[in-house]
Amino acid sequence: MSEWLPALKSRNYRLYFFGQGVSLVGTWMAAVAQQWLLYPTLTNNKSLLGVASAVNAVPTIVLLLYAGVIADRTDRRVGVLIQQILYAFVTFTLFFLVSSGTIQVWHVFVATFLVGAVFAFDMPTRQALMIELVDKKHIASAIALNTGIFNTARVIGPTIAGLLIASIGIAPAFFINGVSFIAVIASVLFMNIPRYTKIEQSDSVWGQFKGGALYIREHQQIWIPLLILFLLSLSTGPLVTFLPVFAHDIFHVGELGFGLFQAAFGFGAVVGSFGFSKLYQTIKDKHRFLAGLLIIISLSMAGFSYAPLFIFALLAIFLGGWAGATLMTLVRTAVHEHVPNHLRGRLVSYYSLVLIGGTPVGALLGSAGVGTIGIRLTVLLSALFFGITTLILTKNLDKRYIKFI
After folding, report:
1. 213: which residues sit within 8 A by CB, 6+ positions away?
2. Which pLDDT band holds residue 150 (cuts at 50, 70, 90)?
3. Which of 42, 60, 82, 364 is the most exposed place for a label (fewest CB within 10 A)?
4. Is the separation of the CB atoms in 118 and 62 below 8 Å?
5. Distance CA 53, CA 35 (A)
6. What is the spatial distance between Cα 194 and Cα 12, in angstroms, rounded to a whole number?
7. Per-residue pLDDT for 349 more than 80?
């Protein structure tokens, strides 16, 4: 196993991997529960799903670049511990409100906002810590494994959540998520990491922020894939946000069908994540490889938007999950392998910003589209936009910069 997945040779990374895996299952359960709580449990307003996505993203977008600088200036392990405790506090609060029957829409929006704020600091801190746990030659393996466990949880969590919600209600999903944060806390506490030594910083926070931006601007092998990733998050925003509407209104498959949608996407992403290294080594023409991924993502979205049957929609979303995870693993590896450790937190924050920042914009545009041209046509137009813009961009790229890895 260690020869196939060399990052697992590191004891510290194994602890991180399994702790993160448990926590992510709970996170995906809570994500499904929260969407179903907003629509159709508390309201019949589909547009609130898009608004909630934006509310979650606003504090993340505002704080993320600053958080990346903080991740490079402080003890990353302590940061991860604090962030997990804050996550657990918000989640258990939602559990008590739902189980007591006092939950209201504004509670959900406040919780969503707070989670977005914590996530802004969690993402760069946790990702930078992860890379410290393995040898540099095993970075690609660590990233593929991390993406794989994320998407494995995306299969398991929504499936369990769908079954729980359909049988005993929404509250247990929040409780399980709260408990799951203990796994990350325990894994970090048991890591054997050298004691943190504070480094005297010659630059101010603002100076370090500008330094990260300048580094990206000067390295096309970083900013080109980041731009493609932004277009991906922008274009898939409507589909991700209004997935409950497809389950409830279009295919009439209820909570379980919604969970299966999430699971199908996650299963495709698992296959893409764990198969990335072998596929990348096999395909020699990386320019066509990238273009092929972009076409597959666009076609899978278009196919999902007008799928005549639920089973066809599941197949389309599985294919999109595979291609999307493969593309994202490619981009993440490119970022980490071209970044020195003292800049890693800042560069991860930029990666996270483009990944997250496009989704709420796409969600809000999707909210407007749903009310005017309908949900199917909204997703179809998003698919066409993604395919056309990214293929034009790829066609004009110097092929030297496609060799990211």
Report:
1. 350
2. confident
3. 82
4. no
5. 10
6. 11
7. yes
Cα–Cα dist 268/325, whole Å: 8
For residue 402, the one-letter residue type is I
Token output for 97: 């409100």
Q: Which two tokens stand for residue 72?
A: 């490079």
Residue 254 falls in which region: left (phi positive, over 0), alpha (psi -120 to 50) or beta: left
Residue with tokens 């023409």: 285
- Alpha-carbon torsion (225, 216, 148, 154), positive or negative: negative
- Cα within 13 Å of Cα(56), Cβ side: 21
Residue 74 class from Cβ within 10 Å (0-12 exposed, 13-18 middle, 19+ buried)? middle
Q: At what angle do helices 47-73 and 11-36 cross, to 10 degrees?
A: 160
Q: For residue 399, give the 3-state DSSP assignment.
A: helix
Q: Name every residue whose Cβ is closer than 8 Å to that of residue 21 and which is 6 or more positions away in sequence.
A: 149, 152, 153, 183
Name the CA dihedral angle for 16, 2, 334, 188, rounded to a multiple of 10 degrees: 10
Token code pair at residue 305? 């938007």
Q: Which of 45-54, 272-281, 342-351, 386-395 shows the lowest mean pLDDT across its residues?
A: 272-281
pLDDT given for residue 202 in this prediction: 59
Instruction: List helix spans (H) across 190-282.
Output: 205-217, 220-241, 243-245, 254-274, 276-282
The answer to whether the beta carbons of residues 198 and 63 sit under 8 Å apart is no
